[in-house]
Design a protein that fits this description.
two-stranded antiparallel ribbon, disordered N terminus, mainly alpha, globular, Farnesyl Diphosphate Synthase, 1% strand, 16 helices
Length: 307
């Protein structure tokens, strides 16, 4: 997709954190190429799609794609498609999550949500257009064989469907005002947030040559654990953060009486569970040795981030 792109970053011997800006720039260029131009008719819809995608996101999911690719020696050119597709699906889900019928949020990443910046109907249509575009990107992927493309489509379809983040959001809405067990909450989180994070790691695995079974198993478990930790950390930030820092209304979980980890089990338990999941996830990377350092860096960032 971006064969001639050269990352202006540190060599691979440096920390993965030194390469974040290069990978973020890379996926932003790929997203810009995939999205219709703002001037293309229907202009309002295309502007809303671009607004949803280019509103200051951290690009954690694409970064996980590239970090896993580094661990496995996959060319970044082959990873551009999955990284782009996954970020489009993530943006689609956020637009829907923010709608009045869902969480009814006014801010996302410090900016008005799409339905506030445009209108509710345009927001729905923008999200509806982002989802198929994600699969079009995979269908057009020329850096992978037919079987890999099919497996990528299958992986992402499952991650965003009723047994993935859409199902998780449905459970989340049904759980408002209810007291859930830890297993029930973590199952919801594994779908709502964890499924797409898991797909980010596994997508790179599907493009790796000769990946050992034990290495795939470790990466699979790592991805599931860090996806769960990501959502618990989000819940913690909703309590401990402020609106300006986290970029969305602080305390919204409590206002909606959501089944969040801190509300059900307390902040101390939420912090402890995050650290436990991080330790377990890092342990799963042990068989990969030093090559897994990019994922270790990202895992620590996810659990210790401030927004």
């Amino acid at each position: 997709m971006l064969e001639h792109f050269e990352m202006r970053v540190m060599p691979l011997s440096a920390s993965f954190g030194d390469r974040l800006s290069g990978y973020t720039e890379r996926v932003d260029l790929a997203l810009d190429k995939a999205l219709p131009a703002a001037s293309e008719n229907p202009e309002r819809l295309h502007n809303a799609m671009r607004y949803a995608v280019f509103n200051g996101g951290k690009r954690v999911r694409p970064l996980l794609v590239y970090a896993t690719g580094e661990c496995l020696g996959v060319d970044p050119v082959a990873l551009d498609g999955p990284a782009t597709s996954i970020e489009l699906l993530h943006a689609f889900s956020l637009v829907h999550d923010d709608l009045p019928a869902m969480d009814d949020d006014d801010l996302r990443r410090g900016q008005p949500t799409v339905h506030r910046a445009f209108d509710e109907a345009t927001a729905i249509l923008a999200a509806d257009a982002l989802q198929p575009l994600a699969f079009q990107v995979l269908a057009d992927l020329d850096s992978a064989g037919d079987r890999a493309r099919v497996e990528l489509v299958r992986l992402l379809a499952g991650a965003c469907g009723s047994i993935g983040m859409t199902g998780g959001q449905a459970i989340d809405l049904e759980s408002e005002g209810k007291k859930l067990s830890r297993d029930a909450v973590e199952h919801m989180f594994s779908l709502k947030t964890g499924a797409l994070i898991h797909a980010s790691v596994v997508s790179a695995c599907l493009l790796a040559d000769g990946l050992a079974r034990e290495h795939f198993s470790g990466l699979d478990s790592f991805a599931r654990g860090i996806g769960l930790a990501f959502q618990i950390k989000d819940d913690i930030l909703d309590v401990e953060g402020d609106t300006e820092t986290i970029g969305k209304p602080a305390g919204s979980d409590a206002e909606l009486d959501k089944a969040s980890y801190p509300s059900l089990f307390g902040l101390a338990a939420a912090h402890a569970r995050c650290e436990e999941l991080l330790d377990d996830a890092l342990r799963e990377l042990d068989p990969l040795g030093p090559t897994a350092e990019p994922l270790r860096w990202l895992a620590r960032y996810i659990v210790h981030r401030g927004n």
